[in-house]
């Protein structure tokens, strides 16, 4: 009887996922850690798009201007 009481106490200290037979819960990285590189990339995309617009030859041409506007719309989206 002493052994069964000891087992019950040990089972109380385990997490629910291990006791119920489910696989253990995995911890993922924090959102700040996961999103940091992504947000840095978004900033680089915006900067590169703006540089491209400023250095585009024939920016006054209607077709080139249309392409520039599409590029900027995509970069800001």
Q: Would you kindly provide a written description of the structure presented here, covering whatever features stand out?
A:
The protein has helices spanning 2-13, 16-19, 31-54, 62-76. By secondary structure, the chain is mostly helical. Helix 3 (31-54) packs antiparallel against helix 4. The model has no long low-confidence stretch (mean pLDDT 79).
Average per-residue pLDDT, rounded, comes to: 79
Largest sheet: none
**Cα-atom radius of gyration:** 28 Å
Using DSSP, what is the number of strands?
A: 0
Order of SSEs:
HHHH
Q: What low-confidence regions span 5 or more consecutive residues with pLDDT below 50? A: none
Number of helices: 4
Strand fraction equals: under 5%
| Spatial separation of the terminal alpha carbons | 67 Å
Which shape, going by the Cα principal axes? rod-shaped
Roughly how much helix do the residues carry, as a percent range?
over 70%
Secondary-structure content class: mainly alpha
Topology:
Elements: H1 2-13, H2 16-19, H3 31-54, H4 62-76
Helix pairs in contact: 3-4
Defining traits:
single chain, 77 residues, mainly alpha, 4 helices, 0% strand, rod-shaped
């Amino acid at each position: 009887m002493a052994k069964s009481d000891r087992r019950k106490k040990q089972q109380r200290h385990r997490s629910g996922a291990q006791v119920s037979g489910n696989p253990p819960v995995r911890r993922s990285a924090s959102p700040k850690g996961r999103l940091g590189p992504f947000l840095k990339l978004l900033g680089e995309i915006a900067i590169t798009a703006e540089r491209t617009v400023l250095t585009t030859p024939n920016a006054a041409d209607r077709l080139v201007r249309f392409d520039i506007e599409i590029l900027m719309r995509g970069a800001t989206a």
